[in-house]
Amino acid sequence: MLKNYIKIAWRNLWKNKIYNGLNIIGLSIGLCSVLFALIFWSYERSFDNFHGKDIYRVTTSSIENTGEPHKTFAGTGQVQGPAFMKEVPELNSYVRVWGGDIMIEVRSGDNVLNLNTLFVDDNFTSFFSFPLLEGDKATALKEINSVVISEDAAMRLFGKKEGVIGELVHLHAEPSARRLGGKPLVVRAVAKNTPQNSSINFDILLPFRFAQLSFTDTNWLNAYLGTFVKFDPKTNTEAIVPKLNAVYEKYAQAQLAESDFDPEISYDLQPIRDMHLNSYLSENSWSMHEGGTTNESKSSYSNQFLGITLFIFLLALFNFINISISATLPRMKEIGLRKMAGSSITGIYVQFFCETALLTLFAIGFALLLLLGLMPQFTTLTGVHVQFSTWLSLENIILLIAILGITSFLASFYPATYFAKVTSKQSLFGKNKSPKSLAIGRVLLVLQFGIAFILAFFSITYYAQMKFMNTKDLGFNADNIIKAEIKGDREKEPIKQFLENELATIPQFKAVTFGGTFGYEVDPTIIDGKKVDAVYRSIDQDFLSVMGLHLKSGKNIPTGNSHEILVNETFVKEAQLEQPIGSRLKLSNSIDESQEYYTIVGVIKDYHFQSLRMKIKPQVLAYIPRHSSEMLVKAASLGGFLPKFEAIYKKAMPLAAFEYGFLSERNKQEYIRELRSQKILGVATILAIVICCMGIFGLSHLNASYRIKEIGIRKVLGAKVSEITVLLSTGFLKLVVLAIIIASPIAYYLVNSWMQDFAYSVGFMWWVLPLVTFGALTITMLTVGFQAIKAALVNPVKSLRSE
């Protein structure tokens, strides 16, 4: 019997090629979209799963006594790990990881590379699940001059990734290497490249003890590196947290008594598999990347992607149901004859289920082909490299079977129920023209256009916001500014003087400035007994001219080391300074331990030194020699300038690797995820419009089929084609208007909520509403109008003879 159902289903599929083709195309597009989103969603949640479940990261939380919001950081200092190991018996082992954004010059012969470096405890290779190609995990980092390199680093340094154990590398610009007497370091192991879904990534591992040769920190109040701990699998970690805080209270009391540290500190434990989507990096996380982790993300990115594609799939499903109803109308007599021949209601349900299951199976197959063919575009769009074969797991095959069953049921249930209720007499003699039969089609059409309207509204607003952020005047001129760095422990002053003199010989050269940031976290500044939290930057006298910044009042800082500084307008407002010029202040302890007074000599106009998501913060700009390794070079034009700059750079530092970037690229890097989301939303909107057109095509054909004799009678009585077109189109236009009325407040709410993430935005653009409305009505008129005109042009004799 089932074979007979499948045979009839195949015949009907082949008989109605156009309708079934639309069904397969629409549903396959929706399925393909969801499958791509599921791949991305699963990938985001696969980070660090290859490590054991018993690994946790220690996080630090601070509560300001001033009532400021609670903050959690993904870091500790150097002392927490050893102290916790000593005082907490449940703790099996710990490892400290310092790096993530630390690039160190590594030399092998004449080959000099900037490598991503992690300083780690000796047990790193046995603590984590990073496999080694060569070497012993237990002893790879035991010696203070031993190193572990990745296979990529091995290829770049030695031209091979095996047989490099015992090779020597030099860290000529590192202070710790100098404290070893300039001795080379020995390669003791080669690690496989870290997986793409790893939060911890490295080119080279150095012993933590090596870093401590030049920097030892016993301060319990610092939080900059990552401390990871292991417990027995059955350990209740919630019971461990109070013990960690008790250790802090025991060891940090003396330091707290000697400092003016304000916040209350507490510790917590975060599962390693939770790090990627809950990075605990602040909105300005420059310094916190030293905690050893990179590639951080948010669950909202994958959730939004999945939510948008689910909307697309729903549109495709609604479209599937509408077209299925439209395609089954000519089979009314077939159903009547089946009933008269003794077919049961169950048989009708099974027949429709088999037909929709066959269609859905074709759609799934086509969706998988689309998935395979569009995988390179998906990789470009999301930056995710996933092999199709690895995705096609047992769980995902079960998911596809579930989609097949659910879709087939939903798409077949309504038409089967409708035809099951129709009597044989009604089926055979055409008494089936109840307008209620179109009710579900109208509801689905309203939902379709409502969702499409929201997507189109949001997409246009999203595009406008991205354009605003990429074109807004940031208060400085980033054109033709090249960013480079004097890396390592070098004598910077002679190098800077040499670079200035040599660069001046290049005709395109305009100016160069040296300085650096301290991250974009605020630090306390004391002025007139008040504390102002400010962002610090080290600058020299050329910074304003290179960046194109303008003084609002006062003068520029002088050449050389001095205690004269600049502040921005926001600092003046926050400090409530009526006469800022001449005011004296103390910088943060972390910037200047001497706690001497500095004098404000100038106020610069506010400029956006951070993302447009944040409001401009108070900023202090001072000459601080130990933070002057960053160089910004301004050129009149870049044609031919870079090769000359590189030659001068290498002449100044023969053993340095020349790397540079353009300041004008900063915005693109700041909003790379938003730009990807914009592309995804744009594609989703186009798909939604296409699917809506297919759905309204099916419903308009259904409507014309029901009213074919009415149209013939009207034509016989003298009705014009235009009048019949208006007659058939008006109902659909009303439904589209209803969808817009329902969707408009939802679209406004979503857009307004999204805009809250940006301190500077385009706001609500009222003109988008009539624009999208006009577009929706135009698309509806074109789609329905084509079907209406086609029906109106049919010979009335044929219409009246129609059964």
Structure description:
The protein is elongated. Strands 1, 2, 3, 4, 5, 6, 7, 8, 9, 10 and 11 form an eleven-stranded mixed β-sheet that branches. The protein has a six-stranded mixed beta barrel with strand order 14-15-20-17-19-18. A hairpin with a 7-residue loop joins strand 1 (55-63) and strand 2. The protein contains 26 helices and 22 strands. It has 803 residues and is an alpha+beta fold.
Helix and strand topology:
Layout: H1 2-15, H2 17-44, E1 55-63, E2 71-73, H3 80-87, E3 91-108, E4 111-120, H4 124-127, E5 132-134, E6 146-150, H5 151-158, E7 168-169, H6 175-179, E8 185-191, E9 204-207, H7 208-211, E10 226-231, H8 237-258, E11 264-271, H9 299-328, H10 332-340, H11 345-373, H12 375-382, H13 388-391, H14 394-421, H15 424-429, H16 439-471, E12 481-485, H17 492-503, E13 509-517, E14 523-527, E15 530-538, H18 543-547, E16 551-554, E17 564-568, H19 569-575, E18 584-586, E19 597-604, E20 619-622, E21 630-635, H20 641-652, E22 661-662, H21 666-670, H22 672-706, H23 708-716, H24 721-755, H25 768-792, H26 796-801
Parallel strand pairs: 4-9, 6-8, 15-20, 17-19
Antiparallel strand pairs: 1-2, 1-10, 1-11, 3-4, 3-10, 5-8, 6-9, 7-8, 12-21, 12-22, 13-15, 13-21, 14-15, 14-18, 16-19, 17-20, 18-19
Helix pairs in contact: 1-11, 2-9, 2-11, 2-22, 3-8, 9-14, 9-16, 9-22, 11-14, 16-22, 16-24, 16-25, 17-20, 22-25, 24-25
Kindly list the characteristics that best describe this protein.
single chain, alpha+beta, 11-stranded mixed beta sheet, 17% strand
